[in-house]
Amino acid sequence: xxxxxxxxxxxxxxxxxxxxxxxxxxxxxxxxxxxxxxxxxxxxxxxxxxxxxxxxxxxxxxxxxxxxxxxxxxxxxxxxxxxxx
Length: 85
Fold this sequence. Notes:
Number of helices: 3
Order of helices and strands: HHH
Shape: rod-shaped
Helix content: over 70%
Strand content: under 5%
Distance between the termini: 90 Å
Mean pLDDT: 85
Largest sheet: none
């Protein structure tokens, strides 16, 4: 028995695997139907994780840039102060 798209989206991964196993034994519908949904979910999780890592890397880069600018200012001040009589 094929599920609606709404049922597929709301089903857990375990339910999808159970439905897949039922279909494989009866061959009522193509078993790839459920595997595609599992792959789509896995791809979405991977994409979300990649986006999270990219945002964190961007924030780290900005913080690093600010710290480098502060270090440059401190170095310039140190040079100016050390040359003062």
